[in-house]
Amino acid sequence: MSHPAIRSAMDACADLDAAAGKVGTDSPVHALSLVDYEPEAIRDYQQQLTSAREELDGAIAEAEAARVEQGEASSGEANAEATAATDRDLAELRAERDRLQQLIKEVDGLAAKLDELAVATGAAATDVARRPEVADAVRTVLGGSWVDDVLGAEELDRAEGVVHAAVGEIVRLCVENERQRNALTDQLEHNLASAESGGVGSGGAEAGMGGGAEAGVGSGAAEGGAVGGGGPHQAD
């Protein structure tokens, strides 16, 4: 599922994409199609973390209830040892929950930053496609009826140059988008590793992130596709 801002930008680039195909340069629509970040995978991962936190809350509630019962029981060495063990368990569970809550906060922050990045990239690409000089050049290239006279050929050459430059600018926006996405997801993966080594019991959630969001968020797809620049036009 594409981000709405990216879909909007792809629509705005439709005519530029047709002109790009005609002059033999990269497809801006295909380049934009590679910048999305699989928001569904991020949301699934957030849900997994939330479920893990709820399980911890249940374990904490059970331990707290046991602690109350122990406090009401008769005194003695065995009860004192059991109470001390429950206190240790509670401390560990609460610390684990705190770490998990921090991880949830970081994932929420990542989702917000990725959303902002998609909006910014989509808006910038749309601005390029809607520039008056780009729109004029696209009309000239798609009209293409001047080639038979010298003045017309010169105008067509100029228009093709504008189309090439506009597409190049959009491709660079897509590459920069991916660079920033990779930086964000690399940071999250580092935090995941830190949280896991700290004892957060989210192995299942981590697997969900690695198998879903990671594949879409920082996959390097753009580097291997039309965003690489100089490849053949790919129509969507």
TrEMBL record:
The keyword Coiled coil applies. Residues 194-236 are annotated as: Disordered. Residues 198-236 have a biased composition (Gly residues). Residues 42-120 form a coiled coil. Keywords: Coiled coil. This is Uncharacterized protein. It comes from Saccharothrix variisporea.
